[in-house]
Specification:
rod-shaped; 2 domains; Beta Polymerase, domain 2; 7 helices; 7 strands
């Protein structure tokens, strides 16, 4: 990326390939040359200046391309599309649920996209153009980008499902705090992904349901299929979340059962020693007239009485099935 925030610029040749165009030559671009695709870092001051003063875009489009925070959405401006999408963060040392945003202004002749961080799906399209098998039109670019963004989610969601299945097996044998932490982390990931995928589904729905002159019916069918795939991923995230909730409930139930068992044992022990403590306390007071004080065998007699009381208690507990 250049210091001016210009990531790349290409002009489609209409055959699946493209030729590069430098930032300095953007002002000389003519639609007759082919479809222009420029990609910027929206946080760079020179990018902000070019989009604001030289792109000839509507103020609404300018604001959408340069906005710091945005949720997935689709907005139509005459025959142009304002689009904000999110993709899985597959960059090294990053969390997949920390999804990367891309903002686009697309019409029949020009594509302007902005980002803060690199998105692998964008790099895929550039490679296809270099190989001569890339998109030939703006509509094909739109389909390819949304498809790449959606397909890259599959591996991550499958990994989450496998991870949840492993946690489910482990939960049958362990209730450790580490396991509970892992479950909470997986649940947070699924919630974070769904937070962006749900509005992205609505944005995709609007793409194929609205009338756009440069998107034909077959391409709308392709967009509909991509939306259905995205819907399936959202349903799988719901399923993952439900499974995690069930695992958490099962762990909480097991912990409660363990606590109840321990409290029950302590209650039985307390019940057994309550009368014994009363008798030993009563006979241990330091006053005259204690029965058996002068009898050398009174201690053994008292022990025998205590053993008898314990035996009677145990018999009663067993009869009432408390033990």
């Amino acid at each position: 990326m250049n210091k001016n925030g210009f990531s790349h610029g290409v002009i489609f040749d209409g055959k699946g390939g493209a030729k590069n165009i430098s930032f300095e030559k953007l002002d000389n671009y003519d639609p007759k040359m082919g479809i222009l695709w420029v990609h910027f870092d929206y946080s760079n001051p020179q990018t902000i200046d070019w989009i604001t003063n030289k792109s000839n875009l509507d103020p609404v489009a300018i604001n959408s391309l340069l906005k710091q925070e945005t949720r997935p959405r689709t907005t139509l401006l005459n025959d142009s599309i304002l689009l904000a999408l999110r993709g899985i963060n597959l960059n090294p040392n990053s969390d997949p649920e920390d999804m990367i945003s891309i903002r686009l202004f697309i019409n029949k002749n020009i594509i302007i996209s902005t980002k803060k961080r690199d998105l692998l799906s964008v790099n895929d399209i550039l490679k296809y153009l270099e190989q001569g098998i890339g998109p030939k039109t703006s509509s094909e670019f739109l389909i390819e980008l949304t498809k790449r963004l959606t397909v890259r989610m599959e591996d991550n969601i499958n990994d989450m499902e496998e991870n949840v299945s492993n946690l489910e097996e482990i939960s049958l044998e362990s209730n450790s705090s580490v396991l509970r932490t892992q479950i909470s982390e997986r649940k947070r990931e699924s919630i974070s992904l769904k937070k962006y995928l749900t509005p992205q589904k609505e944005a995709m729905y609007k793409l194929y349901s609205e009338k756009i002159s440069w998107v034909n019916e077959y391409e709308k069918i392709q967009l509909r299929e991509i939306t259905h795939q995205l819907t399936r991923y959202i349903e799988e995230l719901d399923s993952i979340k439900d499974k995690l909730s069930l695992i958490q409930e099962e762990i909480a139930y097991n912990l409660s059962e363990q606590l109840n068992q321990r409290m029950y044992v302590l209650s039985i022990i307390s019940a057994i020693f309550l009368p014994l403590g009363f008798l030993t306390g009563l006979l241990g007071i330091n006053v005259g007239g204690i029965p058996g004080a002068e009898n050398s065998k009174s201690f053994y007699i008292f022990i025998f009485i205590l053993v008898g009381i314990v035996a009677i208690q145990l018999y009663i507990f067993r009869k009432k099935r408390w033990l």
